[in-house]
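#struct-queue
[09:14] JT: dropping the first one here, sequence first, then the structure tokens:
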Amino acid sequence: MNRHVRHLSGAVLLAGIAIVSACSDSSGPPPASAYKIELRFFGRTLTASQQTLFTNAKARLESIITGTVPPVNANGADPATCGATGVAKLTETISGLVIYASIDSIDGRGKILAEAGPCYIRTSNGQNDYRTSIGIIKIDSADINTLAGSGNLQQVITHEMMHVVGFGTFWDSTSTKLLINYGSNVSYIGAGGIAGCKAIGGNTICASSVPVEGSQGSEGTINSHWRESTFGNELMTGFLNSGTNPLSVMSIRSLEDLGYTVNPAVADAYPDANTHVVINLRSILDPNTVVAAPPTAQWEEPPPHPIVALPVIGH
């Protein structure tokens, strides 16, 4: 979806893929990351186990993104712009990413399960920097227990946090221009994503672009996820699969196209034996319901707000 960016004045706003796995380096822990995410919970009180799911996703993203991002002046930034209620306006510098997180009502059981995305980015010398400075993740309280009981909640939160840092969110922005051939054959042309696809064996299917979801799902899915019919259970397709949903080197390297420094060595092995077992995300509400193809209904959406750009300090 196209997103319009405004500036805050003063404070400023496998089908066709060979089975070649990209595995994490098991020789030791990844190096410490210079990129930091701060979680700020709002709304109803989360249980310790629920908070842990968010902190696990935070640690995962901090292992993926390793380079620093420029600090921004967040004085006057209003978390209400993100949909974070009951939070005061900010008077601080943000040197990484702040994510407001909650479990709250969205639209009832079995409909939209999550709402997540950036609400503030960066700007420097009049140019937008699409590395998010403030974002939000909201999981629908009506669906939280069934998501947790199914074992899918951790995957959903990690998926949504990838959207917060910018995956899929800014692909079709007027500045990054990472998509071509809009419609059923929409494709991604970022060099990092293409290289990552080739690293998992997609030399033919990703010779010049990566297939993106263009026909299955609705606004929250189309033009912002890898194509399910091609990439199966990769975590960043628009549909959850039963069993494993690996975060591949393709998704990780696509973040390079937004300006991040990443560590491809922490990617999950992909493809794996589960790559083409597709399940409707809503069917976890009824474990006996497995579908042969993704549905057209929407299960996630970006927050309904404009993106604001905060000024990089010193520019």
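[09:21] JT: and here's the second one, same format:
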Amino acid sequence: MSAMSTDPSAPRPSPGIRELESLRIARRTEKRPSRLIPAIASVVIAAAAAAGAYAIYLRTIGRPPEVQTAVVSFRQGGQAGTVLTGSGYIVTRHKYIKVGTKMLGQIVEEPIEEGQHIKKGDVLARINDGDYEAQLRQAIADRDLAAADVKLYQAQVDRQRVLYNSGVASRDELDVIENKLAQAKASVKKFESAIDYWRFQVNQCIIRSPIDGVVLTKIHEVGDMIQYGSQSDAGAGVTDIATLADTGDMRAEVDINESDISKVSIGMPATVILDAYPDRPFDARVVKIYPQADRQKGTVKVEVHILDPDLAIIKPEMSAKISFLGGSPVQHEAPLVLVPKKAVVEDEGRRFVWVVRDNRAFRIQVSLGREYQDGVQVLQGLTGGETVIVVPSAQLREGQAVTPVAS
């Protein structure tokens, strides 16, 4: 506390000033904020930005170059390699069979539908056989009448012969009775032939399948009339009822270029893969090489027999890929290693492939053998399972970091 003045001559403050002094507000001393916190925040933000920029750099400019890769395949001894591949269609051995009838009348039954699998002897259609049954019954009646005449004339001949032997009847009378008997017997044979004919006609009113197969087209419906001049595509007056495909011998046909036909032989193994079911290969064998080439296409048609077809998915005229397999177990006793053709590079007469290990490229010298449709045989340098670069760049260096991308 400051000492108050005791000098009596010093002037004293007026009462108003003392009141103002008592109302003065004492201010506290404020602390100035520290500059350390903004500096730390700036460092953190700069570090985060640098990390993000570095990550972007690694994903773009700083990323190792991408390379297309493939895995070297490995086959056990005895497995054949693909020597030729072509696109074709599913067919049947007998191609397609048009089943028809020469009978006239109305279709009263046709228990088939397109796509239905049928067996040999199954009913395809039934024609109204009322007229033919009537003719058959008439022929049977005529035969029975002729048989009765035979019985009568036979008795008359027996009596007339006794009279002739006794000298009572003349030879002419005996000859007349014997002639009637012969005519009656001939009539019996005639009407028996008529019975066979009309019975055949009745049986022809039932059209049956001649093969095991599948119904491709159903030409008529129940109630249609079969008459002269109605859809006689089969020729000789035959009216078509249905078109069938023989599924007992499913095949695939493909056009092979003339320059490659020497690679195909009868009995050669093959694989058929439907375009609609690429994961379902079917084993096959070459059964036919057509004797005539197509001059305009420059191709030769080849057929392969599918050994164990799945009729639930294989249908005639489906598109398929046919691969012809070369070699035999005797030829390939050792394992077969195949590398893609585009992975092989040549340098001064030597052949190399680039192998990727731990995301780095290394050049390996190889010795190659026979070429196949799906690769080149490697005799030395690779064992199978390696990842190789397909179409390697000329700028690749030994041990260079790469980013493999499966081709």
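[09:30] RK: nice, looked through the second one.
[09:31] RK: Helices lie at 15-22, 36-59, 130-165, 171-204.
[09:31] JT: good to know. Residues 1-6, 232-237, 328-332 have pLDDT under 50 and may be disordered.
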